[in-house]
């Protein structure tokens, strides 16, 4: 009876807050505040406009406490101010690599400061709040301190099994298992499955799941040096989302250049944590082009993205996986031997057509592709990468990637070069 009442109350609140209405499911993107120490409100507006251009509703502001990054309050204020001007949403994602469960008072202050901003993201009638790790944070204590300023806590949880009997006052959960892994940072073969999502969904029951969507992962710091096997994931993961229909989605990430899963523009005014070594000259903008129809389909509850214009998006790594780089003190990243030496092409087509790819010294390969969004892959050849699409014998798109694939390198880079026609 109690369960039935709780379910009924949940349905009623869904109906009155409209969170699950057709066309309104939220898509957020993870924003690293730690690399925008000197951002102005104008810088924030540039990013917000790019995100709005593909239907993203808001940013999850990943941040450290002021004792670590003294600019956190200033940049949160800039973020909310910019969002207020542009009708965008923000929520704080406390990064518990730096915050601790003893920071309740400070966390309450931060949340109270923004919960009445018109730019605050709301879910189910509460101001949304999330995290990176920090699984044992006591949200009941935060809620008690905030009184009638209602929050909806959807923290990142590492053990989905713990969601069967949650005791921390959370209202839902966010997963960081956005790449093929057996847990922790173990690298396994691709492609990405929904094994982890399914564990979250089973254990959450009626509570909302915020699913992670990430296009890529490569990092090459001395503290972390690995690649996850993502390959066709930029479209494959969205196809999973269109079937799964989770209540919320968070794209990982907007601007994490260090882990190579950014989809923002190059952010000229972000600070460099060393990741420019693998992110400079590797645009990912065309992944936004690719995500836009998927985001629209997800919001509408549609099973397939709608394509209104013929386009082609391609991505490839700068070298075959087993090339040994001549001047890299860190050594090769873990997982690289699981990568396939292929070039990826997503066609966004209004009608069926023929796709031809010439990868370096390989012979041209032509395949028939259907209408809609389809991803194909082609054996990688060293040299120039050429792409063309024809329909009824007439070429409708053609061009080549500005970066050539090489069999030489100084330092390891398994980031993706992404472009479009
Ligand atoms: C970014 O910084 C440059 C100077 O490096 C400045 O000219 C520009 O206005 C800044 N961009 C924004 C949007 O504030
Ligand atoms: C509270 O908000 C104001 C204005 O947005 C900002 O200046 C201040 O730094 C914020 N304080 C905290 C703790 O975030
Ligand atoms: C931010 O600006 C301050 C003052 O100009 C400067 O000292 C600091 O190095 C800048 N930080 C970054 C990460 O560029
Ligand atoms: C949502 O609305 C669109 C257009 O109005 C419609 O095509 C689609 O079937 C609807 N989806 C659901 C799940 O109701
Ligand atoms: C090797 O890398 C170091 C550090 O990045 C650089 O200073 C040096 O010039 C490089 N050596 C060669 C031969 O390119
Ligand atoms: C390349 O395409 C084939 C055929 O669709 C597929 O089986 C294979 O998994 C793809 N390779 C990668 C690395 O995604």
Automatic annotation (TrEMBL):
Its EC number is 3.2.1.59. It catalyses: Endohydrolysis of (1->3)-alpha-D-glucosidic linkages in isolichenin, pseudonigeran and nigeran. One of its GO terms (cellular component) is mating projection actin fusion focus. InterPro entries: Glyco_hydro_71. It comes from the Eukaryota. Residues 1-20 form the signal peptide. GO terms for molecular function: glucan endo-1,3-alpha-glucosidase activity. Keywords: Glycosidase, Hydrolase, Signal. GO terms for biological process: fungal-type cell wall disassembly involved in conjugation with cellular fusion. It is an enzyme of class 3 (hydrolase). Transmembrane segments: none annotated. Belongs to the glycosyl hydrolase 71 family. This is glucan endo-1,3-alpha-glucosidase. It comes from Hapsidospora chrysogenum (strain ATCC 11550 / CBS 779.69 / DSM 880 / IAM 14645 / JCM 23072 / IMI 49137). The lineage of its organism: Eukaryota, Fungi, Dikarya, Ascomycota, Pezizomycotina.
